[in-house]
Amino acid sequence: MKDCAAIVLGAGKGLGRTICRKLNGRFKCLILAGRSRENLEVTLSELQRQDADPNLEFVISQVDLTDHDSIATFVESLKDLAIPIRALINTAAGFYRGKFYDQSFESIDRLVSANYTGPVLLTSKLLQAGLRSELIDIIHVTNVNSSTTLDSSSSSSMHTSSKAALNIFSRIVGRELIGDGVRLTILAPGTFARDGRKGVSEESLAHIVEFLLTLPDDAWIEAIEVRPRG
Ligand SMILES: NC(=O)c1ccc[n+]([C@@H]2O[C@H](COP(=O)([O-])OP(=O)(O)OC[C@H]3O[C@@H](n4cnc5c(N)ncnc54)[C@H](OP(=O)(O)O)[C@@H]3O)[C@@H](O)[C@H]2O)c1
Question: Measured in angstroms, how far is the CA atom of residue 110 from the centroid of ligand 1?
Fold first, then answer.
């Protein structure tokens, strides 16, 4: 991994930022991708404070998953990198709490694009762009797809259903891609321990991401559902 790059999408905050901290120093180059440049810059300065190794490279790439041109421009920009890209870790997501019929059409469309259509287009563009021979791991973070999630998601229907769509897409496409040497894994956590809430810590999830990236060549984990202990 030391000679390769990894893309962390959604690197500007939350789990994406925690994963960047965990992977800092594991790759020659981390590509910090996401919507808000300001947030990505905060992540960048944290990483630079964490490890001052001058040989490590960090690249900030703004990409908006709701914008097709932005996705295409992002993938084009990756072709200029001199190092092979080994992994895409997608933690980006939009969220809306409330009844779906209170959301504007535009808001519904943006949520579905950020959580489902955008990641699908990005994955497809990356594979078409001649980067396939270098890509080994694609990890999409979704959420647990259980009846428990359905019960607790009555006021986040568009978020939960768009993530469920990404989950099913990833399961089907994962089986297609394995023949091409690409492992697509779904990481499906329950609620995070955050803001005093009980759940799985972001550090534990980042640890699982790191583990997935160190699997032996002949192994593939299709999906992981992570639940808190107690
Ligand atoms: N939080 C939970 O309890 C929980 C539970 C299960 C699963 N998950 C999943 O875990 C992942 C991380 O969750 P989190 O709570 O850490 O998320 P978060 O703090 O809300 O961060 C989401 C990131 O996604 C980026 N993003 C949103 N819309 C985007 C778009 N259109 N294009 C590009 N980037 C976009 C945001 O960019 P900006 O920096 O511009 O805002 C932000 O950096 C998500 O996929 C979420 O669905 C979360």
Answer: 13
**Atom 11, ligand 1: which residue's CA is nearest?**
91
- What is the rounded distance in angstroms from the CA atom of residue 92 to the CA atom of residue 32? 12
Considering only residues 1 and 177, tell me which one the structure prediction assigns the higher pLDDT: 177
CATH of the domain at 202: 3.40.50.720
34 lines ligand 1 (CB under 6 A): yes
Nearest ligand 1 atom to alpha carbon 141? 45
pLDDT at 133: 74
Paired with 60 in beta bridges are 32
Q: What is the pLDDT of residues 101-145, one digit of tens each?
A: 999 999 999 999 999 999 999 999 999 877 767 899 999 999 887
Q: Give residue 93 CA to ligand 1 midpoint distance, Å.
A: 4
Residue 227 CA to residue 136 CA, distance in Å, equals: 26
pLDDT tens figures, 196-222? 999 999 999 999 999 999 999 999 999
Segments forming the whole domain that contains residue 196: 5-226
Q: What percent of the chain has pLDDT over 70?
A: 95
pLDDT at 146: 63
How many domains does one find in the chain? Answer: 1
